[in-house]
Design brief:
41% helix; 5 strands; 8 helices; 5-stranded parallel sheet; 205 residues; disordered N terminus; alpha/beta
Length: 205
């Protein structure tokens, strides 16, 4: 762990904002390895890494609204959308208590619950929101490329070797064609966003 001044710990407040399955737990572990209290899905003394924190209260899981918090550093946390979508629907699949929230916020229509549809629409809306904020992007699957920016901002050392904490089998393994079948409008928007974030978004023929 890097020996950082106590006054620095007291003054820094960091937010890594994304969606579920975008690396929030991993980046929280990375920050804690440097002695920073950046907690997963809740607020620590040095901030949060949260997949639901970009939206207003009340929220699924944490019920925290970070939009009024004065962070010293904010980052748009992401990974390849197809990789995210492999397990994100599983997070939402059994969460009956969340379903009214997704419907009320326009991420799912009235009718039978479809966790793939809710995940895709939430991913698109959240990424649009975070891109509009102009936040620097930290891609966990390209951390070697993006970590120097974060390290320079926060005065940290080299990226530690911390294994991903979630190694569950995928809920499904979608292609872009599969996402088109879930919601072609949201899928098209997701491809456009993916390109902005530097990911391949080719559709198989």
């Amino acid at each position: 762990m890097r020996d950082l001044p106590v006054v620095w710990f007291q003054s820094v407040l960091i937010a890594f904002l994304g969606t579920p399955r975008s690396g929030t737990k991993w980046v929280s572990a990375v920050m804690r390895s440097f002695g920073l209290d950046v907690r997963h899905e809740t607020m620590g003394s040095n901030g949060t890494a949260c997949g639901f924190a970009a939206w207003s209260h009340p929220l699924p899981i944490t019920r925290q609204d970070v939009r009024g918090v004065e962070f010293t550093h904010r980052y748009h946390l992401c990974r390849d959308p197809l990789a995210t979508m492999r397990t994100m629907p599983e997070v939402l699949a059994t969460a009956d208590v969340w379903q009214p929230w997704f419907v009320a916020n326009g991420f799912h229509p009235e009718g039978p619950w479809d966790s793939k549809l809710a995940s895709l629409r939430y991913w698109v809306a959240t990424r649009r929101f975070l891109i509009a904020q102009g936040l620097p992007v930290f891609r966990v699957d390209r951390a070697d490329e993006d970590w120097p920016m974060v390290a320079a901002d926060l005065g940290l050392g080299e990226l530690p070797e911390i294994e991903p904490s979630n190694k569950r089998p995928p809920f499904w393994t979608p292609t872009w064609n599969d996402l088109d079948k879930v919601d072609d409008v949201a899928s098209k928007a997701a491809r456009e966003i993916a390109a902005v974030l530097g990911y391949s978004c080719k559709v198989s023929m």
